[in-house]
Amino acid sequence: MKVALITGASRGFGAALADELNARGWTLIVDARHEDALAEAAERWQNAFAIAGDISEPAHRDELARAVHRLGRLDVLVNNASLLGPSPQPTLDRYPIGVLASVYDVNVFAPLALTQLVLPELKASGGIVVNVTSDAGVEPYEGWGGYGSSKAALDQLTAILGAENPTIAAYAFDPGDMRTQMHQDAFPGEDISDRPEPETIVPALLQLIETRPKSGRYRAADLKVNA
Predict the structure, then answer these.
(1) What is the pTM of this model?
(2) Which one, 4, 90, 181, 218, has least CB within 10 Å?
(3) What confidence tens digit (pLDDT) does each residue in 81-123 have?
(4) Catalytic: 147?
């Protein structure tokens, strides 16, 4: 029995990944902020523990960790939940610092805090941490300073986590543009129907998990996916 913990799993990339792992017989621990949406998504999965809550809240992270402890195993942790911040996004000279702190709470501190809680199980299984990142973390896009800088911090955190814990693999995974609600929120009023659906990106992450290269940052576009 393989076990995955996926945050932000009620829709978008997290739900698409859960769909595929469920089809492969994995046991899932999934979270999202909205209980109804998470419960509806979880109805599709045979062996899933759905725990709704805000990943930035310590009590919710503790609840997720307890689910891992009860199962006694964790093979893959996917820190997928993210917070875009205001939409439209303000430039850094006008970015409310309190709001920026909330973005960092979700995008940087929560993934690390959750990883700390379940690291014993990951080490026991020789598991994998996947932190979902963005090209906004490496490219200086105007108006993306809040979200982008949080993802840059997540990238570096992932790199150091991998260096400090050689018995696990730590990946910053950049899926590229996707047709998700967050992407729509980032471009209010624009047509994003030309972006790929999240399920088309899942094979790239599965390739990364299955081939298990050295820890580091990987783009979906660069991963060779077997047809």
Answers:
(1) 0.94
(2) 181
(3) 999 999 889 999 999 999 999 999 999 999 999 999 999 999 9
(4) yes
Query: pLDDT per residue over 151-207, tens digit each?
Result: 999 999 999 999 999 999 999 999 987 655 665 555 566 665 766 788 999 999 999
Nearest by Cα to 222 from 171, 170, 150: 171
Q: Enumerate domains of the chain plus CATH numbers.
A: 3-175+202-222 (3.40.50.720)
Reported for 15-20, long-range contacts at CB under 8 A and 24+ positions apart, including other chains, are 15/41, 15/198, 16/197, 16/198, 16/199, 16/201, 16/202, 17/78, 17/80, 17/202, 17/205, 18/45, 18/48, 19/44, 19/45, 19/199, 19/202, 20/199, 20/202, 20/206
The catalytic residue among 95, 147, 171, 218 is 147
Q: Which strand ranges, in their side-by-side order, compose the sheet holding 169-174? A: 48-52, 27-32, 3-6, 76-79, 128-132, 169-174, 216-219
